[in-house]
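[Automated response] Your request has been received and processed.

Submitted sequence:
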Amino acid sequence: MRTKVLSLNVDRSMSFTRFQARIESSINNYTDDCVFQQFEDIREMFVALQSALENDELIITAVDVKNYLKFKNALIQAFGTDIAYNSTVLRRVENLSIEDKKKKAFSAFPEPATVFVSDDGLYSGFAMANGSQYLILLPIDNYRIDEILRNGVIPYLNEQLMAKYDDIVLTTEKPAYFDKVSFAVNSILECDSLVAVNGTRNAEVLKSCGDEVIGFDKAFVFTPYVEDKGKINPTEYTAQLARVSLDLSSAKLGACISDIYTSNDAKYICIAVSDGDSALVRKLYMSDNETEHEFVESAAVELIELIGEKVSGKRSVGIEFADEQENAITDDDKKIAKKKPLAILAIIIGLVFIICAIFAFIFQSKDNSDLFASLFSNEESSTTETTTEPISTTEPVTSGTTAYDESMMKLSDYIVSTIMSMDEATIQNNISEYSKEVPEFITVNGEQIPAKQALARLVTAEISNGYNYDAVKAYTVAAYTCLKVIGNDFVLDNVRISQSSNGVVIRAVDDVFGEYLTYNNFLAVPLFHNLTAVSTLDMSAKLPYLKSVKLERHQDVNVRNYETSKVYSVDEMKAILLKNNSSVVLSENPAEWIVVKEHDASVSAEVGNVKSVVFNGTEMTGIEFKMKVMGDDKLASICFQIVYNAETSSFIVTTYGQGYGIGMGQIGAKYLSVNDHDYKAILAKYYEGTTVTKG
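Generated structure:
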């Protein structure tokens, strides 16, 4: 079937290579001659469309979201068809904060068209049949295009072409790999796992392998990818990308399928699965009788199978190599591998990729009457004045592979540190005399961004992928409320912000944009964190709605990095303690440097959220110690235990959870959302007595 794909991607909503790979993978069963053409101008694309209508059978037009409505309207006018308003699209966009005129534009389609409705209704696609020809319009969008292809285009082509070509075997007869992929997906779901796949070009082929597998979307998420190989070898690089995907998500496993590499005339692909501590890498070689598409497809299926084995606890057979032994694979090995279809050299690489985000905190001393300084400090203790220097920042780790700058603060940390630096008068004014109007823009790191888009990108950078709809909504309301408390005309600096947002976050932010929490007609201060250590810290003496919350089932202990442990020598610990406290003179006995005085025993009788700690004779709260002394990069949470071992002259630092442990835990909110709690119920659970209000 002759196929022409015409794309207009002026704003680069999705890279052309990834777009091409995704389309090729999805329509591979329906065409044997596919030509792609890119355009920068709508008029040029319409000229090419006229030619395609004279020569081709399947014509796919794809347009970026910036030009989508304009192109769709021009297409309807060009064909002279009547307009029909799709009721499903209208229903989905009804509550979105967009003009009624745009709602109608999004729901308008040619009357004879079959509509492929997106998750949020925006930029839905459609198809029209004209005799032996088929015209399809798709959005070039990282998140909507997958859903539209899987749930719209592929079923549509199956139905249309099965009736027309009796001799064509389409995807109603399941592909040969269907059972393997289905079994792996079921294994992942049964183990309550989530897999984050790095969004390389060949990841688009992996997506297509799950087009007809129920539950695939629940088992896999895909993280951003920008090529930055440097001098690292392909196997290690693939393992690194798997780990990066894990770090960018709430998944239990990270995975990656590489591009095709060539060495000594042999073509190969690397696949990798990482659990955070190590990565299992396989090198797969292309046989002489395979096409490149067949090779990539079979490699993608093998990666899915490998993931299924990993979550099921099965041990994969392979040869273990140290990093430097990668080059020890001989040419003879490669020749042998090339003679066998997809022959495997299994390489287990013990990699620990430590991606440290070092945040820049600048704190100013405040009067003891400061409302929020007292919230985080020990009122009864006397403090020694110290000179606090900001922690130096680093270049983004694995530059080009993350969706945001790792050296900047998480939004949750930014909010806590900013509120600590505010004086009482400003806080009182902001929570009582706040504006009820939603901002038009939010300025983040010097860039002025439309408020709704900025909020979605800030949310994405904090919670990544895999969060349920109501959990995202709850987080959004809490975050927006805290930004109103901070005030400052919604200007944020040194905060992580993602490059884009997925469909779930976009829809969630649309639904609750402008909503915030109040308590007794004042703005609430709904602080939040990432991962709770059994129970949240009780701050109700200061703010009545910030009580200690313990969920009925403690699910957080199963999350990656819930418990972390690190050993520091005396010299290393001394350097950490003095880095931001250069005027402090440490005692000669290291055992006296850090003594936890009081904790809430949330984890055990020995460990809990630290309420007070004595640092070199000066008492402070656990929050102050984490923020001003150790730093977030060295102390993951305020639920910690620090033990000095005199025999080895070392400190063992163990933490539970992630963040400051106050208010809503993001992982806990996710747990509640999948157990029939809507976003208002989640907020009520963590902030008892507050009210959801809309400006």
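Summary generated for your ticket: Residues 2-164 form a domain with the Molybdenum Cofactor Biosythetic Enzyme; Chain A fold (CATH 3.40.980.10). The chain has 22 helices and 30 strands.
If you did not submit this request, please reply to this message.
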